[in-house]
Amino acid sequence: MKSCHVIHIIIGLNPGGAELTLKKLLELHNDSYKDTSHSVISLTDIGVVGRQLQEKGFRVESLGVKKNFLSFFNVFKLIPIIRSRRPDIIHTWMYHGDFIGGLFAKLFSKARIIWCIRSTDISKGGSKSTLIVRRLCALLSSFIPDSIVCAAEKSKKVHEKIGYSKEKICVVPNGFEIPCDENKEEKSLRIRNDLGISPRCIVVGSVARYHEIKDHPGFILAITPILRSNELVNVVLVGRDTQRIKELDLYTCLDDSVKKRIHTVGEQECVQDYMFSFDVFCLHSKSEGFPNVLAEAMACGVACVSTNVGDSNLLISDTQFLPSPEAPTELSASLLRMISLTKAEREEIGLENRNTIFFQFSSKRMADEYHSLYLSVMS
Question: Computed over its alpha carbons, how large is the radius of gyration of the chain?
């Protein structure tokens, strides 16, 4: 492939699944594919991820679109940027990025256009405006993009069903690094000491922002009987606004002896360190696409329980650890089954999880598949 410039257009660049996948893709392509250059446009602000990319030498700009109506006109700044840079490919991310970026790319450039879908079933917890934009994207999917990428097979099927072009849609699973765990025990002990959790306790951990679709109430319902029956079990909830579980009636009515073993730590930069401290990781969502956080926990060698959502069944093959979503009793039974195993048995499951990610879902594999896609749309 001749030298190719790709402009990525995304709604924002604060940490999230899509944003971190974009960052990883650019870093890997920068190392491995010298025939491809990348720049990024955020429709809103630069964000944490944008600044990190700038520090790595990538060109990142923001248009400054905010929630007020007048600032929306900032999207028209895309026109001179696209015209002056004359990209070969415009790669857009998530519904709003796909719709706005795709429309401007089609009208004001000759670039090939790739849409990137990062959700599965937003009818559960998605905003009305996002549902409208998704519908518009479905209607335009035969006209605007040259290719449409989903991160999950389940996502592909859902979007085909709602009208996305079947001829253009494909799947590129997310890729993950296997973390170096030389200091795993030291990091685990530090986290546990900070939270006042004994090394002999069993930690059940979750990493998810507090949102309806993540179903924290269902998780609390599932874990409560286990906390009541086993004083060695502790829960650690990592993620933005997880402290809000303390506002739930089902939390306020718990005994203090149970409450003190539910630790809400909010959003954390060192999520991996927390994962090293988990004996069991639990994904308790109502819906997912490709569950990044589950794969990240597996890459850390943690034994995992996950609701059977999105592509979680591609990651976890043992159905006894794949309860139905929105079924607290099933989730409780799966968690109890995992907790009841010996430490050695859980560690064996964790090693199998780590190998699954290494052999089937590596970052290198993801980067190669995107490069092949770029070749394909350029040919």
Answer: 22
Q: Which two tokens stand for residue 331?
A: 């989730």
Lowest mean pLDDT among 96-100, 119-123, 215-219: 119-123
pTM attached to this predicted model: 0.79
What is the Cα–Cα distance from 204 to 303, expressed in whole angstroms?
10
Amino acid at 252: T
| Interacting residues of 106 by C-beta distance below 8 A, sequence separation 6+ | 113, 143, 144
Cβ-Cβ contacts under 8 Å for 96 (sequence gap 6 or more): 11, 43, 130, 133
- Phi first, then psi: give them for residue 228, nearest 5 degrees: -70, -35
DSSP string, 51-78: HHHHHTT-EEEE----SSTGGGGGGGGH
The domains found in the chain, sorted by start residue, are 4-175+362-378 (3.40.50.2000), 184-361 (3.40.50.2000)
pLDDT per position as a tens digit, 254-290: 999 999 999 999 999 889 999 999 999 999 999 887 8
Residue range 281-337, pLDDT digits in tens: 999 999 887 888 999 999 999 999 999 998 899 999 999 999 999 999 999 999 999
Residue 112's alpha-carbon distances to 42, 151, 226, in angstroms, are 19, 20, 53
> CA 151, 321, 188: angle at the middle one, nearest 5?
85
